[in-house]
Amino acid sequence: MRCLIDEAANIGQIPRLEKLVATIRSREISACLVLQAQSQLKALYKDNADTIIGNMDTSIFLGGKEPTTLKELAAVLGKETIDTYNTGESRGRETSHSLNYQKLGKELMSQDELATMDGNKCILQLRGVRPFLSDKYDITKHPNFKYTADADDKNAFDIEAFLSARLKLKPNEVCDVYEVDTKGA
User: Fold this and answer.
1) Of 112, 128, 158, 168, which one is least surrounded by beta carbons within 10 A?
2) Mean pLDDT over all residues of the chain?
């Protein structure tokens, strides 16, 4: 079973989510939380947000500019070592030359680079693998794309038509009617 929870920050808090994400995998259940920014998870789950993130096997950054998310992702990506060479020349009575060699640490991607990342790129973090930059999947290339509403309007699901058909009483159908007093509440 796969639980895909889009806009997870807008549905309210899922009770004991920090414990669930740690245990449901053993029962062949996976959870995919879709958020705009990690700060949304922290606002909703407070101290448990780090536990939830830590128990997720996969994380995908599709782009964004929320400072906390950018800072944390830049830290996770880490640094690379770059070699720098500086040359100098001084002239006076005698000309002298100098060559200075240094190894410096540079962030793989700065917060600014993450915020302005190409819209066709994403950063994937998989358990046991260093984070990596990848192309986003072009959904129009999927063999089942033709069945989506984006490909053809006739594939659109009309929720109002579906519900209105279900809400109509059939002849001879028995139902209970209740009156609710909302003024006393």
Assistant:
1) 128
2) 87
Instruction: Look at residues 67, 79, 61 and name the one whose alpha carbon lies nearest to residue 125.
Output: 61
Nearest Cα residue to 53 out of 93, 21, 80: 21
Residues near 60 by beta carbon (within 8 Å), at least 6 away in sequence: 122, 123, 124, 125
Q: How far is CA 179 from CA 32, 86, 166, 175, 183, in A?
A: 41, 84, 22, 13, 12
Nearest by Cα to 74 from 61, 58, 56, 55: 61
Q: Which helix (H) or strand (E) holds 25?
A: none
Structure tokens at 37: 């920014």
What is the maximum span of the chain, computed from C-alpha positions, in angstroms? 112
Q: Which residues contact 38 (CB under 8 A, 6 or more apart)?
A: 49, 53, 66, 68, 69, 72
- pLDDT tens, 121-140? 999 999 899 999 999 999 99
Residue 116, both tokens: 């302005």
By C-alpha distance, which of 102, 109, 101 is closest to 79? 109
Q: What is the pLDDT of residues 47-95, one digit of tens each?
A: 999 999 888 888 999 999 999 999 999 999 988 777 778 888 888 788 8
3-class state of residue 111 by DSSP: helix
Cα dihedral across residues 3, 9, 14, 17: positive or negative: positive
- Count of residues for the chain? 185
